[in-house]
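ugh ok so i messed up the first submission bc i forgot one of the chains. this is the corrected input, ALL of the components this time, i swear. 471 residues overall. if the numbers dont match what u have on ur side tell me asap before i send this to the collaborators (the ones from the other lab, u know who)
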Amino acid sequence: MPVSKPLLVSLTVLLTASVGCLSGGVGLRPDGTPGPQECSGEAKRVMEALKLHVGDAALVELDANQLRSKRVTLYDGPIESVLKDDFGTLEPTTRLYGHVWTGGPQVVIRYYEAHRPGSAKLPICAVARLSYDQMRKRPESKPGTAILDGSVAAAYIVDAFR
Amino acid sequence: MRAPLFIRCCILLTLATLPAQARNPADTLTIRTLQVSDHPRQEAQSIYVSGQVVTALRFEKEIEPTKTKLLAWEGRFKAPLMGSQMVVLEPLRDLDTGEAIPLLVTLVDGTGFTFLVKPRSNEEWGWTDYQVNVFNDPNSYDAVLSSLHNALKRERKLSEENQRFKQEENSIDHAYATLLANGQVKQTPFHRELFFRPKNEDMDMIVEVFSGPGKAAVLIHLTNTDYGGPWTFDGAYLTRDFTHHTARPFAIRMNRPQIVPGQSGKLAVVVDKSAFEVEGQLVDLALQIFRGDGQLQVAVAMDHTLVQK
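and heres the new structure output, hopefully the right one now
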């Protein structure tokens, strides 16, 4: 049975949409927050060597471009955070590279790499967290951005992104 | 002797009504001793006064009222009472910061004293003079007795402080609090549970709450951003319902006694499991930190589940 070209195109678009949009290589939930994601075996081995265990946490300056700001604006996409405390054997000023999702009511930041001063990048798995709703976006945040009160949060080691 | 008797009555009456005039209960009213020496390097002694609070200066000998005067007191003070062995001053209102009014006192034997009457300092050490005992001869009986009392008072205060230091020296909780306040979290058995940034206009704060075996801890990072002056610690309370009846013990340490504008400091509190226990049950507690001006700086909820078995 011959299928018309326009129908084929619309079917393809529909199929892609139903699978879910991809952002930073992760499937997105309907509210724009990232779905589950595995932590690679290599990252787990590196974290073991760095004495970083699940639940370990340290303070980070969320954006290296907005250090010590009263209010920070985060954008969808990559982010560079800076460690404020020792984190396993990682020293303060170590960079944490990750990805920001501002779609949901709260900002989601996942870290995939740690970059020590004068050293190579190391794969890790960590997320930024704060208690008492403090990763919640301020209402005036424009689409694709998230304004937060304060430039500091805590990075927590995870063995998978959930 | 009718006039001096009248003056004495006035002085006594004024002194009797004194405490009611002190406006702020936090004002420190002091009775102190001044040893005035004739040495030329001895500058004029300061007398600290507050508005509508009576300050009495007491001398060893009768004063000579005609040669005793407070310069330019009109409009600032009630007429100074001078007689017997006393001079009594009462400012109508607080003096301006930096204002110093000379007071000249001459005793009947011709000995002269110069004082500077100043407003009570707003610094932590500030006080209002309630009575100042002035001695010229450091070897007189009264002068020696007064110095002895001063020394005893100081000794009692220091020995209480010493006792407290001795108790804290061997306290594990204080040792952990010292480590936390100095950024040595790794050296403690504590594990970070949660972080948050309490909202405050004057001070930037980050609170870390820790759990540990048989203990819980809180570490508060404070940065003086817009406080306007040095931030000082006033007190901490660990309670079940914000009342003194349910106050519980804890160990506290700060890495610096005050935080000047632009500076950061850390305050650590360690709470033993026993503090969470009430009649065999574990209860939740709340930690309150008060700052130098008496305001609540931060309150932190300490859940009993922070204490690990």
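quick check: DSSP finds two helices and twelve strands in chain A. that seems consistent at least. The longest strand of chain A covers residues 121-129.
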